[in-house]
Every structure is written in structure tokens, then in C-alpha cells.
Specification:
This protein is an all-alpha fold. Helix content is about 85%, strand content about 0%.
């Protein structure tokens, strides 16, 4: 269960990074919407990460949790950049995104 909570926390990290990017692109009322989304996603992400490292009989070690959380956020941030902000999807960029994904999976596999 803690791993599912941590994955959701990582997705919310992607959400707050995306909201931050959109808040910088917009003005006025729309900007306030994105800033609100940023604050809410940031709070939810941090709260869920806290739960993942402290919940139940099998908490995830903080080093592993932080690496997985940032890895999910980094991959999500790159994908959001490509699909939402029209950033380039070069071979090497995608190669290293897949390396990050493999590292996150590897941490899950070797964690007790």
C-alpha cells in the first residue's frame, strides 16, 4: 500500500511542477487558478510522501522514497514538458527518461 501512496505522491509532484509552469505562462485570473493548483498539489504530494514513509508495518525508507518520488516527478515533468509545453523529444532525452524509469523500478525491486 505504501508504494501505491508513494506513486500517487510522485504524480502530484508532476502536477505541481506542471501547474508552476502554467502559472508562469499565464496572467490574471488564470494565473491564480494555476497557482492554487500548485499549492494544492504540493501539499497533497508532501502529505502522501509523509504517509508512505511512516504508514503501517512496512514504511518505505526515506532515501528510497525520496529517490522514487523525485524520479516519478522528473519523468512526469519531462513528459509534461513534451506534451504540454512543446519541448523537444530527442533520442537522448527519451533514453535518459527510460533510464530514470528503470532506476525507479530497480529501487522497488531491491527494497525490502
Amino acid at each position: 500500500m505504501n508504494w501505491i501512496i508513494l506513486i500517487i505522491a510522485g504524480l502530484f509532484e508532476t502536477g505541481f511542477a506542471t501547474c508552476l509552469g502554467k502559472a508562469q505562462e499565464t496572467t490574471g485570473r488564470e494565473s491564480y487558478f494555476w497557482w492554487s493548483g500548485f499549492v494544492i498539489a504540493l501539499f497533497v504530494s508532501m502529505f502522501l510522501m509523509y504517509k508512505a514513509i511512516s504508514l503501517g508495518n512496512n514504511p518505505i525508507p526515506i532515501g528510497t522514497a525520496y529517490a522514487v518520488w523525485t524520479g516519478i516527478g522528473a519523468v512526469g515533468g519531462v513528459l509534461a514538458g513534451i506534451f504540454i509545453f512543446n519541448e523537444p523529444a530527442t533520442f537522448w532525452r527519451m533514453f535518459f527518461v527510460f533510464t530514470l524509469i528503470a532506476s525507479v523500478i530497480g529501487l522497488k525491486v531491491v527494497s525490502s
